[in-house]
């Protein structure tokens, strides 16, 4: 990171919540102040109180925080709990007939599931898992379309103490294989396919391909019939979901697990090597999801809450599968793309299901904004009362559009900063209290000690000076480790400042009001459409192609995706004439898509005879970034062996 991180964004507008919103908000100014004061005065006592208020414990905990093996912190370690019980069973007494999930498929099929029905479905599937040899601690990989059954599968794992690892359905067979092998999973739950973008996503075919090339630990494959388009089933290994549950009891006593028992692994990109399996706990993780449903999403009895994230990402874990159910809420799940049959689909879903709370990503907002106001204006969006965003900084233009056209100037926007690793929202406005500013995630939530520090780890007190975003105290929903790699966990998140702080990997500044403004990543991680991708991952995929000798990947700003992928490639043999070979470019894009998934496809590929390197052989990424942006070159290029490659990199020769 450079010594000084310059900030170029200046935004002074402020939007306090309306009186109407404040009046009905769960948390008012005095409540929020009381929470901050409590956490300030007695940090552990604060989290102890939340854990008792928000969760039902089978065996109450006595120990709140154990730091004896820091940074491997333990929360509520002698307590016993079951996450599925907290998400479903405890609502049955008063809310058995309340709708838990409204599902709408891309083709328009709708299904409503009450808490009672969800309970039976989860229990029955949990019993089927048990009948197939799945026990507490076993890993189960889930590779499914965005369906209610994906939530059932995750909840069923939680119910019996199995550790799920969801792999996003947009990832390729190769990525699926890597994750199954790293997790050592015994079972794979998938579907024959899913409907997305007007097409069938061939999940079963990808699963077959992954298993054919490795994954020796997989004993069983469970297949949900979603598309019914005739997939091959392997005798002895594959079973249809609907056949497997026949005869299984609809009652399944939850497996009470220690609070620290791993609930799930979720793989995410880092700056080096393979994706890392972020390991989350049971009690602490659920506490983060549950508290923020109240603090940030202000969830109420009659809300219809919709988070558009896929269960393959952390947002789909905390704010689809776990948080809304822990809060006893009603949520919408939509299977497909926002543009099927047209760009009005999201707005139609809000109208049809009377959605009150809508949580999505800036990239989706920008893409839909581009289609014009006429589309959303055709729909009745008056049910909305709260909007949210996540995944990347939102540009003020998109924020204002979201505020005016979608929120009709009456809905607060909660811009929530957090990460796969943090488990839950960390920096976000409490909507009935905090005035928002377009592009800022505002303040850290109660019990979250976030700050900006300089290279030496000292807090930066000067307003708007950029630095590292750190969390200074452990918090309940933090990751526990990287699966199978404690050292990488310590090095990646705690190494920078000698185990003093958790280092998020983002650069940030605080303005004069103490509001946080995220400025970007400080490592080699790209944020493409709100999804994290390591530049190294894309580079390794490119280099795995027989014609590629070397590759360097950087991000360049993109109007819709936030960041686009720009690849510089050195071929084995001669560089294409004039640097252009459209057939090869097409082939390489398809290749990367197959190696990782369509989200990793390079947007631009530029061929050069060599990559620019420093004397020590390091690729000059900053130079490549400037070129990708079309900026003038200011870096020192005197160390380049061959100045002429500069012209090639710039696409001029
Ligand atoms: C970025 C997603 C600005 C950030 C929940 C972070 C954001 C990374 C925001 C985590 C936000 C997430 N404003 N940037 N509101 N939310 N980010 O693990 O760089 O997929 O480190 O978790 O996304 O991405 P992840």
Description:
With 653 residues, this protein is an alpha/beta fold. Helices cover 31% and strands 21% of the residues. It is built from 21 helices and 30 strands. Strands 12-11-8-6-7-14-15-23 form an eight-stranded mixed beta sheet, sandwiched between helices. It has a seven-stranded mixed beta sheet with strand order 5-4-17-16-18-19-20, sandwiched between helices. Strands 21-22-24-25 form a four-stranded antiparallel beta sheet. Strand 24 and strand 25 form a beta hairpin. Helix 2 packs across helix 3, helix 8 packs across helix 9 and helix 14 packs across helix 16. The mean pLDDT is 94. Bound molecules: 5'-O-[(S)-ethoxy(hydroxy)phosphoryl]adenosine.
The DSSP helix count reads: 21
Query: In which order are the strands of the major sheet placed?
Result: 12-11-8-6-7-14-15-23
Strand content: 15-25%
Rg measurement, Å: 24 Å
Give start-end ranges of low-pLDDT stretches: none
Bound molecules: 5'-O-[(S)-ethoxy(hydroxy)phosphoryl]adenosine
Give the biggest beta sheet. Answer: 8 strands, mixed
| Helix coverage percent | 25-40%
The average pLDDT value, as a whole number, equals: 94
Secondary-structure content class = alpha/beta
Distance between the termini: 32 Å
- Tell me, what's the shape? globular
DSSP strand tally: 30
């Amino acid at each position: 990171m450079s010594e000084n991180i310059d900030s170029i964004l200046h935004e002074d507008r402020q939007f306090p919540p309306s009186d109407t919103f404040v009046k009905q908000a769960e948390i008012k100014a005095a409540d929020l102040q009381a929470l901050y004061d409590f956490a300030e005065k007695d940090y552990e006592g604060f989290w102890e109180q939340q854990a008792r208020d928000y969760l039902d414990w089978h065996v109450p905990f006595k120990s709140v925080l154990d730091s004896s093996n820091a940074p491997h912190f333990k929360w509520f370690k002698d307590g016993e709990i079951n996450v599925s019980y907290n998400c479903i069973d405890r609502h049955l007494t008063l809310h058995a007939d309340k709708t838990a999930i409204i599902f709408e498929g891309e083709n328009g099929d709708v299904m409503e599931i009450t808490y009672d029905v969800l309970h039976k479905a989860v229990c029955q599937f949990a019993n089927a898992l048990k009948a197939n040899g799945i026990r507490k601690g076993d890993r189960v990989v889930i590779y499914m379309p965005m369906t209610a059954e994906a939530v059932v599968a995750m909840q069923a794992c939680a119910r019996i103490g199995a550790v799920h690892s969801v792999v996003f359905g947009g990832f390729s067979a190769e990525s699926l294989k890597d994750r199954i092998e790293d997790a050592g999973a015994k079972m794979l739950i998938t579907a024959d396919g899913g409907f997305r973008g007007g097409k069938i996503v061939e999940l079963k075919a990808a699963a077959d391909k992954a298993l054919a090339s490795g994954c020796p630990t997989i004993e069983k494959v469970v297949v949900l019939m979603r598309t019914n388009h005739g997939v091959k089933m392997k005798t002895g290994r594959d079973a249809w979901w609907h056949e497997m549950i026949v005869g299984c009891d609809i009652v399944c006593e939850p497996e009470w697990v220690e609070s620290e028992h791993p609930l799930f692994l979720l793989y995410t990109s880092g700056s080096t090597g393979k994706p890392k399996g972020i390991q989350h706990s049971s009690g602490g993780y659920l506490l983060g999801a549950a508290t923020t449903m109240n603090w940030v999403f202000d969830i109420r009895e009659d809300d219809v809450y919709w988070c558009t994230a896929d269960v393959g990402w952390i947002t789909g874990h905390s704010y689809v599968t776990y948080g809304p159910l822990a809060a006893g809420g009603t949520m919408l799940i939509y299977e497909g793309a926002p543009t099927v049959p047209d760009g009005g689909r999201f707005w139609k879903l809000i109208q049809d299901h009377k959605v009150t709370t809508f949580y999505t990503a800036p990239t989706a907002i920008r893409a839909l904004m581009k289609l014009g106001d006429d589309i959303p204006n055709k729909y009745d969006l008056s049910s909305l009362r709260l909007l949210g965003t996540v995944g990347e900084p939102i540009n003020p233009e998109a924020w204002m559009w979201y505020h005016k056209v979608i929120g009709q100037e009456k809905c607060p926007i909660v811009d929530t900063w957090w990460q796969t690793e943090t488990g839950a929202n960390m920096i976000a406005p409490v909507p009935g209290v905090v005035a928002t500013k377009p592009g800022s995630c505002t303040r850290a939530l109660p019990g979250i000690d976030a700050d900006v520090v300089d290279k030496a780890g000292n807090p930066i007190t000067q307003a708007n000076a950029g630095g590292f975003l750190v969390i200074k105290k452990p918090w309940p929903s933090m990751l526990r480790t990287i699966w199978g790699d404690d050292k990488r966990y310590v090095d990646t998140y705690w190494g920078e400042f000698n185990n003093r702080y958790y280092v998020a990997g983002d650069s940030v500044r605080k303005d004069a009001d103490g509001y946080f403004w995220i400025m970007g990543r400080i490592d080699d991680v790209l944020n493409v459409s709100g999804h994290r991708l390591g530049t190294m991952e894309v580079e390794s995929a490119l280099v795995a192609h027989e014609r590629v000798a070397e590759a360097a990947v950087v991000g360049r700003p993109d109007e819709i995706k936030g960041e686009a992928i720009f690849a510089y490639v050195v071929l084995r043999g001669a560089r294409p004439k004039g640097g252009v070979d459209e057939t090869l470019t097409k082939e390489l894009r398809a290749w990367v898509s197959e190696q990782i998934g369509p989200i990793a496809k390079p947007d631009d590929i530029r061929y050069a005879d060599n990559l620019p390197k420093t004397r020590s052989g390091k690729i000059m990424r900053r130079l490549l970034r400037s070129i990708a942006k079309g900026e003038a070159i200011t870096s020192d290029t005197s160390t380049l062996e061959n100045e002429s490659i500069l012209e090639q990199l710039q696409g001029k020769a």
